[in-house]
Amino acid sequence: MAVSISVLSSCLFVFVFILPRLWSRYQFNKKYRLPHVVPGWPIIGNSLDVPFPGGMWGVETARKYGEMYTCYLGGRAIVFLNSSRVVNDLLEKRAAIYSSRPFRPMCQDIMSGGARMLLMPHSDRWRNQRKIMHSILNNRQAETKFIAYQELESKQLVYDYMTDPENFHLANQRFSNSVIMSVVFGRRAAIDDPELKAILESVAVLAEYLFNPLKNICDAFPWLSNLPKPLQWWRPAGEAYFKRTRALYKGEYDRLVKKMENGTARPCFAVEVEQGAAKKEFAIDETEKLFVFSTLLEAGSDTSRNAITQAVAAMAAYPAWVIKARAMLDEVCGADAERLPSLSDREGLPYITAAAKECLRWRPFIQTGVPHMLVQDDEYEGYKFPAGTQFCWNAYAIALNEGDYADPMTFSPERFMDADLNNPLKGHWSFGTGRRVCVGYNVGANNIWIAIACLIYCFDITEDPDHPINTLNTNWEIHKEAPFKVKIAPRSQAHIELIKRISIEALTADY
Ligand code: HEM
C-alpha cells in the first residue's frame, strides 16, 4: 500500500510539475532562440552563480561565450551584451522596443508606490517624469545654475583633501552628496547631515533589493504578486519602507516650501518644478513629485562619488596622464597656484574632458549594466528573442575588451581626444544607453571634470608602494572606509595658500 501511494504521488508530481515545464520548454525552443544559455540550477537558474558586483565574472563569462550569452536570474532570462557592436545594434538602434524595465513587484510597486522612474516600464508616466527631469537638468540655463554649486563644493573638496587626506573617500562622498542636494533642493549637505544620512541608508536598502535578484522572492518570481495580499509575507516590510522613504522626502520638500514662502529658496530642481515656466505641465501628485526628487538624489549621489574615487585610483596607478594633464592645467591656471580651475575652463582643457570620459570607461562601476526589457518579439542575427527578455550591456566586459578599446587596462585619456570629445555620452556606456540613458549626465560629467581638474592641480597623488592598488577588484561599494590606500600631498606651499584662501567661501557658505 505504502509503495503504491509513493508511486502515485511520483506520477502526480511528474504530471503536475515536470511535464508542463517540459512542454512549455519544448514550445519555447520551437519558437525562440536565445544566445548560449549559461548552465545553471533548476528553477533558480544562475541566480546563485552571478556574484555582486559581477564585473570580473562578466569578463570571464564573455571570454568563454563571446558577444552574447544568456543567464536565468530568478525565473527570467537576461541576455548579456558583451561588445559595443551588439549594444549599439540592439539597445541604441532599436531603442523604441528595448527601453522598458522588468516588472519588480517588491522594489517598484510596493517599496516605491509605483512612482520610482528608474524602475518604470516604458510608459506615458515614465515619459512625463523623464521630460520633467530632462528639461530642468539639461537646458542651457541649468548649466549655469548648477555649475555654481559644483564650483563651491570643489573648493571644499580640495580643503578636505588637504586637511584629512586619509579620508579622501569621505571628501568625495561629501562633495557628491552636497552637489546633488543643492541641485535638487537648493541646500548644502555636511558629511554628518542627519536627513541625508537617513536618505542614504534608505538608498542602501533599495540597492540591496535592486541588485540582488534573490533578495525578494516576489521580484525573482513576479507571478507571486498574484497571491492574495494577506498571503504576501514580504508586503508589510515593503510598505513600511515606502512610508519611511516618502516621509524623508516630504520633510525635505516641506522645508523647501517654507523657504520659497519666505523668499530664501535657492535656484534648484524642486523650485523649478514648483514655480518654473512649465509648472502646469509638471502638475503631478505629491507622491510622484517626492519620488522624482528621490530618484534624482539616489541616482546622482553614489555614482559621482564612485567615479571620483575611481579617478583618484587612476591618478595613482597611471601617473603618465597626470603629468600631461597637470602641465595643461598649469598653463591655464598658472604654475604657481594662481587660481583654482573652474568649469569655465573646459574649452581650454580638452584633455581633462577626455580624462573624465576615460574615468567612466576605464572601470565602469555599474559593472554589468542595468537591465533593459524588450517589449515585443524580435529577431537578430539568427536569434529570436521573446518579449520580456532583459538585456544588459556587460559594462566591465566591454571596457576590458581589446576589440572595443586598444590597451583597455591602461588609463589613457588620449582615446577620447576625437570629434565626439564634448559629447559626454559618446565612446563609452557608463551613462547607459538608448532611451534610458542617464538623464543627469551633464551634472555627473561636470562633477567628474571639476574634481579631476582641482585635484590634479593642487595635489600629488601617488601609489603607496606598501599598498599597491588592485584597480580591478577595488570595492567601490563601501562608504565607511577608503577602498584603497593612496598618498596625497599638496604640491607646494603656494598651493596650500591657494586652498586656504579659496576655501573660506565654501567653509562659511550656509544654505
Ligand atoms: C558619474 C555619474 C553618473 C553615472 C555614471 C550614471 C549612470 C547611470 C546609468 C548607468 C543609468 C541607467 C541607464 C540605462 O538604464 O541605460 C542611469 C540612470 C539614471 N540616472 Fe544617472 N548616472 C550618473 C549621475 C547622475 C546624476 C547626477 C543624476 C541626477 C541629477 C542622475 C539621474 C539618473 C536618472 C533619473 C536615471 C534613470 C533614467 C531612466 O530610467 O530613464 N544620474 N544613470
Q: What is the makeup of the main sheet? A: 4 strands, mixed
Structural class: alpha+beta
* Helix segment tally: 17
User: What do we call the CATH topology?
Assistant: Cytochrome p450
Which shape, going by the Cα principal axes?
A: globular
Give the C-alpha Rg: 25 Å
CATH architecture: Orthogonal Bundle
Total strand count, please?
8
The CATH homology group name = Cytochrome P450
Strand content: 5-15%
Classify the helix fraction into a percent range: 40-55%
Domain count: the total is 1
Q: Give the spatial strand order of the biggest sheet.
A: 1-2-6-3
Report the uncertain regions. none
Mean pLDDT: 93
Q: What is the highest CATH level, the class?
A: Mainly Alpha
Following the backbone from N to C, one meets helices and strands in this order, namely HHEEHHHHHHHHHHHHEEEEHHEEH
Distance between the termini: 81 Å
Bound molecules: protoporphyrin IX containing FE
Comma- or semicolon-separated keywords:
Cytochrome p450; 511 residues; alpha+beta; 8 strands
Describe the structure.
The mean pLDDT is 93. A four-stranded mixed β-sheet has the order 1-2-6-3. Strand 1 and strand 2 (76-81) form a beta hairpin. It is α+β, with helices and mostly antiparallel strands and 511 residues long. It has one domain (30-508): Cytochrome P450 (Cytochrome p450, Orthogonal Bundle), CATH 1.10.630. It has 17 helices and eight strands. The radius of gyration is 25 Å and the shape is globular. The longest helix has 32 residues, at 286-317. Helix content is 52%, strand content 7%. The termini are far apart. Helix 8 packs antiparallel against helix 10 (235-261), helix 10 (235-261) crosses helix 12 and helix 12 packs parallel to helix 16 (441-458). Bound molecules: protoporphyrin IX containing FE (HEM). Protoporphyrin IX containing FE binds at residues 117-118, 130, 133, 137, 180, 183, 295-296, 299-300, 303-304, 307, 360, 366, 370, 430-433, 436-440, 443-444, 448.
